[in-house]
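Figure S7 source data.
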Amino acid sequence: MKLYYSRNLNPRVAVAVARYLKSPLEYILSSPRDPANVGAFRSINPNALVPVLEEGERRLWETDAIACRLSAIAGSDFWRTDESTPEMIKWISWSAYHLNSAAGELYFDRIVRPRIQIPPAAPSVLVEAMHNFRTHAATLDRELEDKTWLVGDHVSYADFRVATALPFADGAELPLAEFSNVKRWHERLSEIEAWRSPFDGLT
Ligand SMILES: N[C@@H](CCC(=O)N[C@@H](CS)C(=O)NCC(=O)O)C(=O)O
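Tokens for the predicted glutathione complex:
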């Protein structure tokens, strides 16, 4: 099996999941949007994005689908398959449409745009993204008031997925210090080596 990845938001989650589950993978560092690669990469993923999990002829894209598959292969409940599955899906969905959507805009503007040398977004776009991030981080903060993990009593994919942008908080200027429960929960998550340093030992 192969996992095509880069060091950006979503592939970072997929690599962290794979390392956490000790998935037997070959890791292929990729630049699918590089003009030199984009055409060829579309045969691996028509969206020309990473991560992609390749198992023989089968290619699976989307981080959530890859996490689901790797968890099944590992025989783990990291991807919950019991009565708590809807609760896990709730967090995955919420983070995609709300927290990570807002954080992703800030990440893209402050980390990716300077790297690929395109001009910053209009200030009003960033003000709105920051407002949305604060709104959703406040929701998460309240939810985490009396919880160690988002689903049940041990870590699940919901924790990794909701935390997608938090390892980039400094560079993306996410105001984590304002949300003490979120900050504590992410510190706890960062005690897991696979989450803290997913790329260690990879090229
Ligand atoms: N919905 C997809 C999004 C994948 C995506 O946006 N990947 C971005 C990185 S966050 C990408 O491949 N960008 C080009 C690159 O990283 O080189 C998922 O959840 O996997």
